[in-house]
Amino acid sequence: VSSWVTHVIVSQPTHEDRKAVLSCIFRVAVCCWNFGNFNTAVEILSGLKSDKLKPFWLSLSGKDKLPLLDFLSSSLLTPGPTQEYKEAVERALDIPHSKVIPFFGTFLRDLKTVFNGMPSLLVLPNNDTQELELVAQFQGEDHFMSRVGVGGIINMKKIEQVRQVLDDIRAFHQHAEHRRKELISSSTSEP
Fold it and tell me: Rounded to whole angstroms, how far apart are CA atoms 108 and 104?
């Protein structure tokens, strides 16, 4: 989708045609945001932010700039989930008939952050020190944890954060299942 967006704009013969196509594509991105299709909105924004479009963006005057593009970019194309994105997801999930499509990259990014950023084991303090030691020693190219011994315990905070990400995924799945059941029940009840 990102490549297609870039290609459609660049392939237009005139500057006015490129602006017209940009306007149409941008309206699609805004509709995707409003309807809860966040994955497509991110793909469209990624295409609009392509390096191939830099000369086109530089050629636009101030009145042609799209302030909503900056809002969507700052909401969707950030390293971490923003408050605007969280609120938009909640709004979309509150619409029972809406087919909400999250940007799955956020789930992968969040899981990667938890797995790489937190130790898996805590070493219990011995009698000499009263501090907990965090252990995250990866061995070899397969990055399996090395054995610590009997003094280590599982980092429950890490497990809780992974569970939170999985609960977020489950919320989208439950919404889709509820929507599917309502569509089936409404189609069977019609005369």
Answer: 7
Please state whether beta strands 121-123 and 152-154 pair in parallel, antiparallel, or not at all (unpaired). Answer: antiparallel
Q: Which residue is listed with tokens 């054995």?
A: 147
The whole-model pTM stands at: 0.69
Helix/strand/coil for 102: coil
By the 8 A CB rule, do 153 and 177 touch?
A: no
- Rounded to whole angstroms, how far apart are CA atoms 12 and 16? 9
Q: Which residue has the tokens 């990055």?
A: 143
Q: How far, CA to CA in Å, does 68 sit from each of 60, 74, 75, 165? A: 15, 10, 10, 28
For the stretch 65-120, pLDDT in tens is 678 888 888 888 887 778 898 899 888 888 877 788 888 888 888 888 888 888 77
User: Look-up: residue for tokens 């636009």?
Assistant: 60
Token couple for 146: 């090395």
Yes or no: say if 75 and 84 are a contact pair by the CB < 8 Å rule: yes
pLDDT-derived band at 140 (thresholds 50, 70, 90) equals very low
Q: Which two tokens stand for residue 7?
A: 């290609």
